[in-house]
Amino acid sequence: MGVIIKQSFKNLITTYFGFAIGAINTLFLFTYFLEQEYYGLVTFLLSAASLLWPFMAFGVHSTLIKFFTFYKTKQEKDRLLNLILFLPLLVSVVLGLIGVLSYSFLIDYFTQGNGLVRPYIWLIFLIAFATSYFEIFFAWSKLYYKSVFGNFMKEVFHRFCISLLLLAVYFTWITVHQFIYCIAGVFILRLIAMMIYAFSLYFPKLDFKFPKNLSPVLKYTSLILIAGSVAMALLDLDKVMIEYFMPIENVAIYGIAIYIATVISVPQKAMHQITNPMTAEFLNTKNKKSLEELYKKSSLNLLIVSLLIFILIITNVKQLYELIPDEYELSILVVLLISLVKLYDNLLGNNNSILFNSDYYRIVLFIGVLIVLVAFVLNLIFIPSFGIEGAAIASFIAFFIYNSTKIWLVHKKFNFLPFTSKTWQVLLMGGIFSFGFYFWDFSFHPILNIGLKSILIGISYVGLAYFLNFSSEVNDIINKFLKIKTS
């Protein structure tokens, strides 16, 4: 358990560090060093690759973690690993052939939309392929409880490399066209490093025989493929559809708002590493009381932390946009709606862990597919009418329906909800802070304004949450922090 906690803490620090580098890239380096349409092009290529790579990976990265310990002999484990290695390659070849056969259609599509994309279509496939195998080798390392290097490569490496490439563009060491190709090279380099690390932990013997119990393995892989595709589609569908209906620079503008709001998701990612195995244990032992307690506590604690980040974003977003070029400024409504989506995700607590570790995950997958279709239709309706704001509205509605349905499903099957009386008190406090500080600005430089306002909000929010005793876990953390500072 000590190893897990230690690595979780390191992963949390790494994730925040990666987000910090990404924020510098997103808000400043891209906006000042790259033309707007090329920033939009990069955002589109990465989003399109994010939609494609789950299909290439075919869900085997999750299958590997689930089934590896089921096999006891080295021979059977090697057979599973060989299946994991070659199945995505076969799928990628099939998808590649489909891409080649439909190349003329793709050319016509991007000529009608944004011709700037045409020369780089094949990079979508290349980045997706590199990402899919990176995730496989990352899962490979997790089998031996070695996640720190993989998490660093996933969260920090490519963002840092992109920072260097952007500086190279600024100093005219490379052209913008070379920059785009180099980004694909970064993903390939990341894959190679992860592959070498995974093979250093365990190198399987080549064996072309299938492992035992192949049927449940392939069945689970197919279901996880659907789950992963649904998750990525909900995250990146709107950016890809903006590219079709609007000039490509709008993808960059929308991408900035998305990145700002995504910071709210970090606490949920960190807590998931701890709550997911606990949830599985409580489900397996049928410990319904502890499961309900974990559900409520995870929801409340994530809400308290993520709501503070939400308030800091909403109340400082005007000053934040003063720091970037005027052409990237957009409606505050976009940031608000996407931030509310991320806040609602945190409010769910360990809801996803409950559903995907139970016998009801097939229902969630079916609902997820329907929600993707709903999101697609909503984007078709709202983007032509309302532009970028339409994409945000479509995403908000789709996620609201999806998250509300998952809360209803857990209530229907397990008869408990994540909310307590403290939930509504925290939300009320958050509403008061958001409205109160949004209209209160200092007449200083935006950076100084953001700093002063954030300090005031942070001290007031944490102090009030502490004295109102919303969460014993949060209060314990504050007590430990104060004890360290006063010792």
TrEMBL record:
Name the domain of life this protein comes from.
Answer: Bacteria
**Gene Ontology CC: one annotated term:** plasma membrane
List all membrane-crossing ranges.
12-32, 38-60, 80-107, 119-144, 156-173, 179-204, 216-235, 247-266, 298-318, 330-348, 360-384, 390-411, 423-440, 446-468
Cell inner membrane keyword on record: no
Q: Cite the entry's keywords alphabetically.
A: Cell membrane, Membrane, Transmembrane, Transmembrane helix
**Where in or outside the cell?**
Cell membrane
Secreted as a keyword of this entry, yes or no, is no
Instruction: Indicate how the chain sits in the lipid bilayer.
Output: Multi-pass membrane protein
**Where is it mostly found?**
membrane
PANTHER family, sorted:
O-ANTIGEN TRANSPORTER-RELATED, PST FAMILY PREDICTED COLANIC ACID TRANSPORTER
Q: What is the protein named?
A: Membrane protein involved in the export of O-antigen and teichoic acid
